[in-house]
Every structure is written in C-alpha cells, then in structure tokens.
Amino acid sequence: xxxxxxxxxxxxxxxxxxxxxxxxxxxxxxxxxxxxxxxxxxxxxxxxxxxxxxxxxxxxxxxxxxxxxx
Length: 70
What we know:
By secondary structure, the protein is an alpha+beta fold. It is built from two helices and three strands; from the N terminus they run αβββα. The protein has helices spanning 2-6, 60-66, and strands spanning 19-24, 32-37, 42-44.
C-alpha cells in the first residue's frame, strides 16, 4: 500500500483515526465521497476510500482460533 501511495501524490493515508460515519452522495446509499472521523474532521475523497479494521493481533484468543501456529 505504501509503495502504491508513493506513486499517487494526491493520495493520503490516515492512520489511528476511527471513522464515525461515511459520507455518501445519497442519504442512505450512493457513491462514497469521504468519511467523518471520530474527532469530527471530514476527509473527502475524489476517487476512493479504503477502510481497514486493524486486525486482531492484540487478541490472543482470536489468534489461537485462526492461526494456532502463533
């Protein structure tokens, strides 16, 4: 992802920023245009929004359930 970002100068990466809501072109559905962060900041997007959940690396029970080798 970081390599791809380096080839797109107008793209940005925001980490450690929980999303409160998704901004759409319609009230309930429609094109995703950005997000509202938990701190109230709005991040607008022209082409895409990628959301990630951070995984479960800090949850030993889930690690054991999905990959007991760890």
